[in-house]
Amino acid sequence: MAKKLTSRAEDYSAWYNEIVAGADLAEHSAVRGCMVIKPYGFAIWEKMRDQLDKMFKETGHQNAYFPIFVPKSLFEAEEKNAEGFAKECAVVTHYRLKTDPDDSTKLIVDPKAKLEEELIVRPTSEAIIWNTYRGWIQSYRDLPILINQWANVVRWEMRTRLFLRTTEFLWQEGHTAHATKPEALEESEKMVNVYSEFAQNWMAMPVIMGSKSESERFAGAEETYTIEALMQDGKALQAGTSHFLGQNFAKAFDVQYTTREGKKELVWATSWGVSTRLMGALIMTHSDDLGLVLPPRLAPIQVVIVPIYKGEDQLDKIREHITPLMESLKSKGVSVKFDDDDTRKPGWKFAEHELKGVPLRVAVGNRDLENGTLELARRDLNTKESIAFADSADIISVRLEEIQESLFDRAIEFRKENVTEVETFAEFKDVLEKKGGFILTHWDGTGETERAIKKETNATIRCIPFAEKPSAGKCVYSGGESNQRVMFAKAY
Hints:
By secondary structure, the protein is α+β, with helices and mostly antiparallel strands. 35% of the residues lie in helices and 29% in strands.
């Protein structure tokens, strides 16, 4: 078992890194800025992926796969998108190595194997996908196209942190094509709502939905919708985005369709995505100084049963006694582990499963067999209770739902306590320094003011919240007119 974690209050960054390592979620790889997602971490990601995939398919989307390489000429076709990602691109220039003539133990790039056209390792896939859509779309009958892909992307980051920002990461990216602007806007809004539903119902993570300011939009988008979550250190995390791309990519790749009336029209586009960054969000939303805390719906192991015994005879009796309970739980869709590892003591196992965030722990020993009871420990509250064995399957099912709800309620209460309305810039800076969290305030709508606030405080406009009603006021920085509060925060 890992050593005791650094306290969140003492060093939040160290605490986060120690949980990622101690809970066996991921580790740094031999490639700078890249990570190895370990089996336990990947099992959590698989549960996220599978549920999201189900939700995408329920809204009419299909999965496909597109190449990781994008010809440079295609990447350049949509100028804003290319400019937005240019500094993060990895570029393939050659396709072969050869033995160094001066040192036969080394390989060098073969200068004769230079590519005719350089290839961009995808930072995002709009270019290659819209070049493909040009061949798929001729008529209104071909629309809409509702495609999602599960893939990896590469963005050459200078400062990385496991899950939150890595050079290569896993994600899904939806790319849809529509006949009309209203249809594309509806799609963009629908998908940000899907992300919100997933975050809140599965991750137990409350989010605020809204639109991005112009400077914070996805490169090449006319509108970007976002879900923003608040982490326990008072910083915001962008957890998912959905983009209305207008006709920008259709123009760049000449994607047109023939209408019912026989006219040629440009197609309307959207894209949307979430990534393994959600793993970082999950860790930072719920975990504590004892380790990872997982909502039951995303926990690879929802219930762990730890036998307390002396000798193989007692272990066999406990196993025989507990098997019907395990079968009953599995029939209810509950994932159960019977931890009979004889190389570790119960105390070590308790701490290890606590560190890994297993929602419920059952301890059962010889005395429990005699009394017809079990000891049940909740990870969210770090409490224990004795329950009747006869009722244990039903009680455990109820407790799992209670934990899911409890984690969401706790997170939303934390957010409520850390949303502050301010009227002056002095107030803004004071709240940001001493309290953090989300700051709701008036903004004059100009990029100049937005940049000035960011330069002075490192806070950015996280979103213009959908739920925030119009209200007249004065900009917190310039004093100019404003008709709605926006949400600022420092962010990951």
